[in-house]
């Protein structure tokens, strides 16, 4: 008996959303390994139109015009062959949910990572947008409401979906994300060399009570370091909800106390407000911006960071928090529902937007690293999140449709 064919509908790689590419890659890998469905992974073809016009060139307007044409006109037309050859369809990114209208909705699912995409319709006072933009997003939201399955990362996202009555509760499926294999407390060893063994403790007290059983093995990693040595790390974009303004203000204050402390920022680019803040605080020479890193390179940054900061005031999941913990890093994050759900007792939390508390907390951790949640507990917590389990829940839901 042949396996049902599931089409995995990816984002355009040209748009540059590494988190969405990661989700697609990890799911595709686990679906292939499990062998319960026949996977058809679809990488959509991207056409550049506006960027080739002389009066638009490389400007952001041209890029966004191409995105609209590709998402709303080209991509749906690429699905004709898949509609005939596949029984099930999985949209990796909710901002592509308009594709559901070109597919059999009763056999299609959409993964909702957060509701930011729909904010201009759900809470227009928070995200005012022009009428043409809202019309496009309304088409995307219409597709989401027609999907047979709506997957979500956290209970926080589920609660928001239900609060706005977007889809019936029975269509919702909880499928948390996982940790990619590159994110480990030690670099991946060369072929033939055994990896570093994980901490032995497997009970929740490893996180909540300081991971006493793992204390001996972590002694070297937790040795005191001068507060002004090394770097702080932030991984993420510069969109407003990431609160990069808080990140920069906290770093500027710490830098005045610890003159050699550095900040590494993965992602970007800066907004004009961020650039002005950097100039005003005179911290440009202390900041290094990195982009287009491999997962191995990113893991190395997590492992070397004094602190990983995640000051967002809204998140659907917060994958960098989990990745950092898996590498053994100390994470300071905003005390918001999704990050509390993902980080638990392994993360140090601060009120979102409170620069004073963030600065004081980071200062305390730099001065006394042992005051952070124990390293063995951080590693234990991260191991609870699995891409294999993510794929299993998704597969179960789709097979249930058949």
- Taking pLDDT < 50 over at least 5 consecutive residues as the criterion, the unreliable ranges are 198-221
**CATH topology call of the largest domain:** Rossmann fold
Written as H for each helix and E for each strand, in order along the chain, the element string is: EHEHHEEHHEHEHHEHEHEHEHEHEHHH
Number of helices: 16
Task: Give an account of the 3D structure.
Strand 5, helix 6 (155-163) and strand 6 form a beta-alpha-beta unit. The chain has 2 domains: 5-178 and 387-401, Rossmann fold; 205-382, Rossmann fold (3-Layer(aba) Sandwich). It has helices at 18-34, 60-77, 80-85, 119-122, 131-146, 155-163, 205-208, 215-218, 244-257, 272-281, 295-304, 319-326, 337-343, 355-367, 375-382, 387-401, and strands at residues 5-9, 38-42, 88-91, 108-112, 149-152, 172-174, 231-235, 262-266, 287-290, 307-310, 331-334, 348-350. The two termini are 14 Å apart. It is built from 16 helices and 12 strands. Mean pLDDT is 90; it is low at 198-221. Helix 9 packs parallel to helix 10 (272-281), helix 9 crosses helix 14 (355-367) and helix 12 crosses helix 15. The strands form 2 sheets. Strands 2-1-3-4-5-6 form a 6-stranded parallel beta sheet. Strands 9-8-7-10-11-12 form a 6-stranded parallel beta sheet, with helices on both faces. It has 402 residues and is an alpha/beta fold.
Question: Keywords, please?
Answer:
single chain, 402 residues, alpha/beta, Rossmann fold, 6-stranded parallel β-sheet
């Amino acid at each position: 008996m042949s396996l049902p064919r599931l089409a995995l509908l990816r984002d355009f790689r040209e748009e540059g959303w590494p988190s969405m590419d990661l989700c697609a890659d990890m799911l595709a890998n686990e679906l292939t390994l499990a062998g319960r469905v026949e996977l058809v992974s679809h990488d959509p073809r991207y056409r550049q139109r506006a960027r080739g016009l002389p009066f638009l060139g490389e400007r952001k307007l041209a890029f966004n015009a191409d995105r609209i044409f590709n998402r709303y006109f080209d991509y749906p037309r690429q699905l004709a062959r898949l509609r005939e050859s596949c029984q099930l369809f999985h949209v990796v990114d909710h901002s592509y949910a308009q594709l559901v209208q070109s597919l059999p909705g009763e056999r299609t699912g959409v993964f909702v990572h957060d509701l930011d995409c729909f904010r201009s319709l759900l809470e227009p006072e928070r995200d005012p947008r022009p009428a043409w933009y809202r019309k496009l997003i309304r088409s995307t939201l219409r597709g989401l409401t027609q999907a047979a399955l709506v997957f979500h990362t956290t209970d926080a996202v589920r609660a928001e979906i239900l609060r706005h009555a977007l889809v019936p509760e029975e269509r919702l499926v909880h499928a948390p994300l996982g940790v990619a294999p590159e994110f480990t407390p030690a670099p991946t060893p060369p072929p033939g060399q055994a990896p570093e063994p994980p901490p032995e403790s497997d009970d929740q007290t490893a996180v909540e009570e300081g991971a006493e059983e793992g204390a001996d093995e972590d002694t070297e990693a937790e040795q005191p370091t001068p507060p002004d040595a090394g770097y702080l790390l932030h991984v993420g974009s510069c969109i407003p909800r990431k609160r990069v303004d808080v990140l920069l203000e906290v770093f500027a204050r710490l830098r005045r106390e610890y003159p050699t402390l550095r900040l590494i920022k993965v992602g970007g680019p800066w907004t004009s407000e961020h650039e002005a803040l950097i100039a005003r605080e005179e911290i440009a020479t202390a900041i290094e911006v990195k982009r287009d890193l491999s997962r191995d390179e990113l893991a190395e940054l997590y492992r070397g960071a004094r602190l990983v900061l995640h000051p967002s005031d809204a998140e659907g999941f917060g994958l960098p928090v989990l990745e950092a913990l898996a590498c053994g890093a100390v994470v300071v994050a905003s005390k918001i529902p999704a990050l509390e759900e993902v980080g638990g007792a392994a993360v140090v939390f601060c009120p979102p937007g409170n620069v004073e508390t963030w600065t004081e907390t980071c200062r305390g951790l730099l001065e006394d690293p042992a005051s952070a949640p124990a390293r063995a507990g951080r590693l234990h917590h991260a191991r609870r999140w699995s891409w294999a389990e993510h794929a299993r829940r998704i597969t179960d839901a789709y097979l249930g449709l058949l």
